[in-house]
Request: fold
Amino acid sequence: MREQQGYNLIEIMVGIAVTSLMLGVMTTIVLRVGEGFDGNNSLIKATNQIEQAVGFIASDIRMAKFSDLISGAAPVSTVNLGWTDYYAGSNVGYKSVYSLNGTDLQRVYTVGGVAVTSVVGKSISSIAFSTSGSLVTVSISTSAISGPKTDNESKTYRFFMRPVP
Reply:
């Protein structure tokens, strides 16, 4: 009997098939892990949008001495906040108005009669303001789309307005 040198055609084809199968499985695993990271990224972005918007809202509510919210009434999607700065006798009036324009949360900040409009949150799907006395409740939701999946994040915050002397 003759001694075999090298591989025959069947052995080579089986080796190629096994290698292809392993590469396919590994590619699928890598793609699934990547999709997981994308999903987490969109959720993180959604959460960051809420936190950014609430940073502005919290600051203004804590400074506000008055608002157009009616204690005990149903939540509304727009709020007007105002206060006067009596520091060093300046008597400067401040006003902040928050409203949802599409998916952008807009803030119109007025100081001494000069208004500046800015977007303080993007991809905001809903916002609701309500009050009970000087306690203001803010409920905010955002939607982040990651491929075929949509991540929703909702949070509720409560802040006290500045006491009126």
The chain has a mean pLDDT of 86. The longest helix spans residues 9-63.
